[in-house]
What does this fold into?
Amino acid sequence: MEVVIVPTAADIGVVVADAVSALLARRADAVLGLATGSSPLPVYDELIRRCRSGSISFAHASAFLLDEYVGLPAGHPQSYREVIESAFTGRVDFAPGAVHGPDGNAADLSAAGADYEEAIIAARGIDLQLLGIGADGHIAFNEPGSSLGSTTRIKSLTSATREANARFFAHLDDVPHHVLTQGVGTILRARHLVLVAAGADKAAPVAAAVEGPVTSMVPASALQLHRHATIVVDESAAAQLRLADYYREAFAGKSVWQGL
Ligand code: F6R
It folds into this structure.
């Protein structure tokens, strides 16, 4: 596991966009895993800028979303399909049909979860999975207590996560209680995991995930089990890392060709 500490959230965008650009240069048909929420926005902004300047293209790439609310009607502005489309995928050159998400309106949500797993496998798996982290250590919508071997399935959100997400809805009551989310086990199958976090609110969950025990009580701690996991944080989100100086030295000592 590598921890990269940068001064600001905008710097997170550049460092992670460099990794995505390098991947696209190696494989134009890269399979990307996309997170919604605020944390990846600097990454998406930088990727949009690079795509518009012609230095990268997503024309042959595809993408899978981590999660989706259950029961929001298709086209609802807060459905993760719509959110990612307006924040990122609709502003770059993905081909029609290249962006996939769990079907939160399926009549049979268990079957929809199994179908999503199959679709990821059929696409030969995810090359680079972008992740945020919740205040309680969740990744995707795997709340504390989620099995570290879980696959895509329905989950109930905690009241804390619903309250955190209420900022995007008119009322707390409008935030769905259920989601269809990739499992921790699904996420661990991606070839490269890149978790991004910025701001003081993320300092405790980042420290628990990176330096605490591997436990289902902090689902992000499962990244410690992955052979290629990168945590990219700003100084505020790094504030509770005991080995912060070591992480800085190690990153400063890397050669450019090593990438993330
Ligand atoms: C969203 C997702 C969630 C968020 C997490 C952090 O697709 O998977 O795990 O990454 O809730 O959200 P932000 O980035 O808004 O703080």
Observations:
- The longest helix spans residues 9-26.
